[in-house]
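Lab notebook, design round three. We kept the backbone fixed and only want residue identities now. Task for the bench partner: fill in a sequence for the structure below.
Input structure tokens:
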């Protein structure tokens, strides 16, 4: 299993190297092929892919450990469906070849994720799933950054969208540790993710262009965050997987609403 895992990792690293060679200029042209979907809506869609990459892995670990299994399996099924649908849409709407190559790479990782997630849970499989979720996140992040290149007014959509991803990333690492991925990297990634979420939340709250509705939603997130972030940091002790599942999902839902409001507000200007 370890040998197979190494081969998979090396293969993906080789693939991404080939796909991204010369990719420093991949955002220089307008990647949106049609005007039926605005550039900000595209950024929002691509940004959701970052979140889904983390949510799918989180759901895999919860289901594998038989914790909140029914909800986790239902959410995993829906997330896989949404991720695949959006990948097809992005590939159709984006004309830039370098970005399309990154989308193809993410699809490779997605196919392997589907294959592994259908097998019986094991720490070895869990390690592969964790790695695949990171690959999908990295590829999706490149797509988002390409779409936001040169669009300063859309930066807030990207930043707010990142909070959706970070909330699911917190839950992913929390449950991965409880599911047997008990290495230092899991702990470090969890603590860094909590720190990044807190930093971005403060930045969003301080944004002077926030509407009254955005301020209200961010205040709700902030109140919850101030209570629950300590639970997340206590990853080594564990013992609160249901609370982590529900609170991070609630934060994701609220941040998704905030991103939608940002998009709608900017579209009206």
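Proposed sequence:
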């Amino acid at each position: 299993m370890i040998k197979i895992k190494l081969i998979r990792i090396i293969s993906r690293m080789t693939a991404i190297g080939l796909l991204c060679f010369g990719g420093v200029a991949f955002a220089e042209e307008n990647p949106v092929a049609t005007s039926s979907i605005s550039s900000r809506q595209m950024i929002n869609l691509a940004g959701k892919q970052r979140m889904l990459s983390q949510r799918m892995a989180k759901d895999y670990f919860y289901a594998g450990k038989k914790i909140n299994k029914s909800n986790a399996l239902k959410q995993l099924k829906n997330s896989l469906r949404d991720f695949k649908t959006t990948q097809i849409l992005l590939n159709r709407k984006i004309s830039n070849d370098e970005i399309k190559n990154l989308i193809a790479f993410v699809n490779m990782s997605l196919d392997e994720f589907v294959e592994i997630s259908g097998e019986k849970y094991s720490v070895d499989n869990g390690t592969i799933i964790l790695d695949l979720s990171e690959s999908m996140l990295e590829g999706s992040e490149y797509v988002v950054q390409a779409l936001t290149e040169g669009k300063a007014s859309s930066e807030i959509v990207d930043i707010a969208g990142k909070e959706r991803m970070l909330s699911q990333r917190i839950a992913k690492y929390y449950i991965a540790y409880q599911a047997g991925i008990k290495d230092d990297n899991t702990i470090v990634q969890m603590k860094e993710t909590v720190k990044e979420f807190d930093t971005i939340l403060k930045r969003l709250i301080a944004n002077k262009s926030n509407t009254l509705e955005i301020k209200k939603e961010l205040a709700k997130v902030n109140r919850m965050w101030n209570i629950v972030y300590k639970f997340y940091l206590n990853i080594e002790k564990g013992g609160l997987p249901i609370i982590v599942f529900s609170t991070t999902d609630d934060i994701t839902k609220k941040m998704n609403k905030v991103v939608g409001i940002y998009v709608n507000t900017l579209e009206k200007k």
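Keep this in mind before ordering anything: The longest helix spans residues 241-267.
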